[in-house]
Write a structure and sequence with these properties.
Rossmann fold, 11 helices, 6-stranded parallel sheet
Length: about 230
Amino acid sequence: MQYWERLGVQKASVMLLPYASHLEYYVQRRADSQETRQETRNSLGISADRVVGLFVGRLVGVKGVDLLLDGLRLLPPSGRPTLLVVGDGPERANLERAAVEAKLPVKFLGFREAHELPPLFAAADFFLMPSRVEPWGIVLAEAMASGLAVVASDQVGAAYDLLEEGQNGFLVREGSAEAWSDALQRCFSERDRLATMGRQSSEIARQWTCRRSVQLFLTAVAACFQGQH
């Protein structure tokens, strides 16, 4: 919107369409996955009382998983949430080695297909996106549709569309292990709020479905033809 306004386009002439994904799929799978939440946790060796964060993405430097580990390391052992890392890539071996050496509560689950993600979303309490560069980030919307609070770096484009600070998640300064440590500590200490924040995420995500995008596109097309006949 700001881009078009700088070009002199009137605000009333601009209609925003959501950068949509098949979020309906994650919404539909959410209930079933929640029913088997503890079963999924048990399969991962995670007890019911653990606070769990989830990362999904390629294990490359730009995704910033090393910042999560550095942030986790700064917390006392008794105040560390468990992190699930889903994905593969050239940095996996280094990240796993760092987690083991520091005795961090991190589980690397490797690559998972899209249909395998809903149970993992359900097993977690919040979603993490620490990217150093991320033009948008569709998986953030998928996590929200699955009912998770979200924590994202200020370099994630989707955060500016989807994240409402303190309502459904937290925005973190990119590149700072200390900032990520603070965010992880906040999720750990405010665990009772995470479910409420997740429900807010789900409500926001409902406005970013393919169906919603099509409806707005048709409205925009219709507006273009108004008054021409």
